[in-house]
Fold this sequence. Notes:
This protein is α/β, with parallel strands linked by helices. Helices cover 36% and strands 18% of the residues. It has a six-stranded mixed sheet, sandwiched between helices.
Amino acid sequence: MITTVIFVRHGETAWNLEQRYQGQEDSPLSAQGLLQAQRVGEFLSKRRIDAVFSSDLGRAVRTARCIAEYHNLVPILEERLREMSFGVWEGLTRAEVREQYPKLFQARMTDSTAHPIPQGEEPAQVVQRFLECLEERIAQHAGGTIVVVSHGAALRLTLASLLGIPLHRSNCLSQSNGGISELTYDQDDSRCPWRAVTINSTAHLL
Length: 206
């Protein structure tokens, strides 16, 4: 029995524009972000969708509502789908992090899994909570199609894990604001239970 999971990154936010680390802090969708969310909703309106699950952070919830409304659904909020916590970096711009934490910033460019941010989450912790949520929700909708609205780093790490890519290479998987990644899951396929249909599709945003 094949289940389809459509992963969506939230629309652009004010902090995205300012290049601030958001993590589990939040900022509202920008005008462009609202447009992106609307276009995602319109694009997915053509699909049969059984449930919409979302991080409980505002930027993801706003995006999820734009998708769910076309299917007479209400997004189910999940703390386990939140963005990775960036600890003491949250609220800082990329430039400020480079200035205040130069060695750590550079080290994480090489391998983020080996250099945790103070008070932040380990990549493996993000994947563990995300996959626990996925397993439960797929079991509830086996054979159907679900949408999961989340965040850039959390999605990159999760997709890498599902596709057998080492977590320290997860940055090779782009996740644009409003981007869609579609995977199928077949528990009976021991060789390749997760298959990528598309990764970070953004044609619907044009």
